[in-house]
Amino acid sequence: MKNELQLSKNSQDFLENLTIYLFSSGKNSDEIEDIVQELEIHLSEAEKNGKSIEKIIGKSPKEYMKMVSNEMIIDYRTWFKYICLIVFGSFSFTIILYLLEGNLSYSFLEIFGHIVISAIFITSVFIGFTYISSHSHSIKKQGLILVGIAILPMTLFVGLIYLNRVIDTPVIHLGNTGSLIIGVITAIFIIGVSIWAKSWTLMIIVALLTLPNYLLHLMSLKYETKLILSIMITYGGIAIYLWILSKLEKRKKDR
Hints:
Blueprint: H1 9-24, H2 29-48, H3 54-57, H4 61-70, H5 76-101, E1 105-107, H6 108-134, H7 139-166, E2 171-173, H8 176-197, H9 201-217, H10 223-254
Antiparallel strand pairs: 1-2
Helix pairs in contact: 1-2, 1-4, 1-6, 5-6, 5-8, 5-9, 6-7, 9-10
């Protein structure tokens, strides 16, 4: 958050946590920005007069956040868009992987599993971000929570892959034309989301989730060895990437 007004670190941290809390509670981003800017002015004026942040928000930041959140309406339309993006995003990983191996085909179990895992991921994001923003934790603990949120759906997807091999359900097969069309749409989606978010994160994670498995598949190794190496490279790469992001973010805050 960019603050033009002079604020103490406690006030800046509170405004950042309030923004995260309201966003993870499903509130409208424009309304969040208006409320935060208005509160920023009040905090700046209070600090100029020698008053502490408690004079404005009270002794419990968590209770203040809840009070503000309860006075705002949930932005269902915007969050429906986010949910659609997350669900389609979850399919994009397997779409790329399947296209590398051949034409697309999905079992009913895979389709249902993707929707369920997406719902679990969305819920974990809401709970995790709300918890982080309303409690005081070290950067290290916050990082562990965020890594846990990121790893949870990946672990569930790995479980879904094995479950799909054990349980037989009807399969929808797509031919060359259908697979090509969906592949192009997926590529446009990934590039579009990356441009919209101004981040390479999605493209890097897609690459880490698909390329190791594909490249190892070309090697003459045992299945168990390929599986272990694929998991190590994928999760290790994602962990390193998240660690680099956290270091870069920390440097920005220290400037």
